[in-house]
Amino acid sequence: MKQVLLLLRDNIKQIPFPNCWDIPGGGLEDGESPQQTIIREMREEIELVLHAPKLFNTYIKHDRIEYTFWQMADLDLSRTPLHEGQMLKWFSKEEIENLSERKIAFDFKHVLLEFFLKKKVNGT
């Protein structure tokens, strides 16, 4: 079954989108490329070593540029360490479609559905 990995953000009122599902990642550090950023963030957040993440899309927002990457992975979440957030979960296309927009951080629902559409990741 083809799915996407999401992280449940901490339930802390001071952070953006507390207790919402989010695409793992983070912000660029000085001198870092977007690809170097996702490699570092995945290693820091869940100790996953990415070898060649592929750029899926770039989104220009009014206050930032978002780079989305993807890489196939076979992770046993019961053995995956989690250093940020509450939990990890694999989501199918149908599960994403049924999630309320308010339960997905940063308006990422459209990004996830676009990924399923373009990559033909259809949950079967």
* Mean pLDDT across every amino acid position: 93
Task: Supply the helix-strand structural class.
Answer: alpha+beta
Helical proportion, percent range? 10-25%
Gyration radius, to the nearest Å?
14 Å
Major sheet attributes: 3 strands, antiparallel
- Described by its quaternary structure, the protein is single chain
Following the backbone from N to C, one meets helices and strands in this order, namely EEHEEEHH
Number of domains: 1
- The low-confidence parts are none
Q: Report the CATH architecture.
A: Alpha-Beta Complex
Intertermini distance: 5 Å
Strands side by side in the biggest sheet: 2-1-5
CATH fold description: Nucleoside Triphosphate Pyrophosphohydrolase
Overall body shape? globular
CATH superfamily, please? Answer: Nucleoside Triphosphate Pyrophosphohydrolase
The number of E-state strands comes to 5
Number of helices: 3
Considering the chains and any ligands shown, give keywords for the structure.
alpha+beta, globular, Nucleoside Triphosphate Pyrophosphohydrolase, two-stranded antiparallel sheet, 124 residues
Overview of this protein structure:
This protein has one domain (4-119): Nucleoside Triphosphate Pyrophosphohydrolase, CATH 3.90.79.10. It is 24% helix and 20% strand. It has three helices and five strands; from the N terminus they run E-E-H-E-E-E-H-H. It is globular, with a radius of gyration of 14 Å.
